[in-house]
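Thread: Newbie trying to understand structure tokens

Hi all, I'm a second-year student working on a class project, and my supervisor (Dr. K.) asked me to get a predicted structure for one chain before our next meeting. I've only ever worked with sequences, so writing a 3D structure as a token string is new to me. If someone could post the tokens and maybe explain what I'm looking at, I'd be very grateful. Here's the chain:
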Amino acid sequence: MGVCNNVVARFVQSLTGQGDFAAGSSEALMHSLRRSSIVLLLGGAAAIAVAFAQPSSAAADSPDVPPAAAPGPQSGQDVSHAVNQVQSFYDKSTTFKSDFEQKFWVKAYNQEKTSRGHVTFAKPGKMDWVYDDPKDNRVVSDGTLIKVYEAANKQMYEQPIDKSQYPAALSFLTGTGKLSDSFDFELFPGEQMKFTGGYVLVGTPKQPTPAYSKVLFYVDAPTSQVRRVMVIDGQGNRNRFDFINPKVNETIGKAQFKFTPPEGTSIVRP
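---
Reply by user tm_fold:
Sure, no problem. This is what the structure looks like when written as tokens:
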């Protein structure tokens, strides 16, 4: 795969496996699924960043999109209230740490790859995704530079934040924007979406992006806290993140968001 125009494009290509899936071979498919584990769509990261959540009572059932024959979304007033409640919790949170489980499902092949790791966010604009599987893969931003390290390929892609889609995608994380600035929302009951005890906010980006066509926020009703995020791209592929044992407002050192790759790593700066 050649050098992408920017790091976001690299994320999108890796996640969707566009280059490898075109070949149609099972080896290409599995290679793309392995690579997808490192990939964190910056658009998806925007959604995931809002998951500054506590343990909740909502059951973690299998996620789903709104069934075509199901009742429509709830009223606009209800939607605004739900979004404001989630935003209010985010506004009070300065840091977030959690284990996570990521499930990436490829629609065309009906194949799913599961990855696990640990994620940390801190305002303004810092994040650190450390993967246990695939081991040593990492996505890091110190608020100025974004780095994507692929251990198996011994490559790291890096780019200044202001040269990527990262600022707009994570505006509410950095404190310069809100969920309602980035998405138009619909609200669905949890029972309709296989999420007992909660509700689901289905966001459509106000500014079209190749990274995603929909972002689903699975919210615990009693606490208004996000428990899960699912990103759906234009091909119908689904990238789901569940947060496990989350903690908020803990002290996090600046070193958490500094990363130097191993000696011999190839650095790509699009």
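A couple of things are worth pointing out once you decode it. The chain has a mean pLDDT of 75. Residues 7-268 form a domain with the outer membrane lipoprotein receptor (LolB), chain A fold (CATH 2.50.20.10). Feel free to ask follow-ups in this thread.
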